[in-house]
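TICKET #2291
ISSUE: user wants both folds in one file
ATTACHMENT 1:
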Amino acid sequence: MAKRKLVVCDRYRYGPRGVLVKGDRFKVTGGPIYVTDGGERLPMYERGVFVFQRYCEKGAARWIEACRADGGGFVVLWVGRSVRSRNIPNLRRRPYRVTGKVGDKSRRRRAKKE
């Protein structure tokens, strides 16, 4: 079986008009959850503002590497399809969804002239 190559990109398209490039600040929703034996769902996801570093693909695995905007550290945000973890039986690896850029001046509305 052939080895899958790691593909690294410096931009990530998250919608029809949205593109992240290195240094962009963004927010996400979604993310992994842990389901206990009793059926309780515990969130395991990251929240807040992140700074985009790069987007990676290896076969069907897709993820975003970013830093926390508040200086909290480096995070890996899964954006591939939803799967169950092989190592942790009750962990559901749900994908993160980029909601948009933070502080992007191009999205602000212009004031109407009277």
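ATTACHMENT 2:
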Amino acid sequence: MNKYATFGRQATALVRELAGAASPSAPLPDVVDIGTTLWSLSEQVDDSLAPIKERMRSEARQQGQGTCQFVGSTGRCQVVVPQPQTSVPDAGTLLPILGADTFNALFDTVTTYKPRTDFAQRLLTLPTVQQQAILQRLKMSDPTPRVSFKNVNFKP
């Protein structure tokens, strides 16, 4: 077991001790202090996890889309990297430029406009002016990968 696993066990024990002290018979000011301390710890943990999660997202993005597993000595991390999504904000402004037939051939109409599966092929068949109008509005959304951690060797 490495020193980080030992720190983790100690921190978990301290948190449990604090939480256990907030029994129904504990004086209310003590329960408030315990709650305040635990809340502060949770905020610090969230702040500390942010750069760790970003590192894990970066590592996973380098491996491509899908689910990536990373293993430590006492735990594992799973990162789900979704596929980037193409969208065209304000696609409705293209309707007068493209005309209804061309517009409907390129886009499915939903709450937002989603390019059809054969969008790229159809786009190439359009006049340059129409292609440029579309490309100026095209936006690629890259969803944030989801990161989760799980202890594998440590049972609290």
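RESOLUTION: both attachments delivered.
EXTRA DETAIL ON ATTACHMENT 2: The mean pLDDT is 87.
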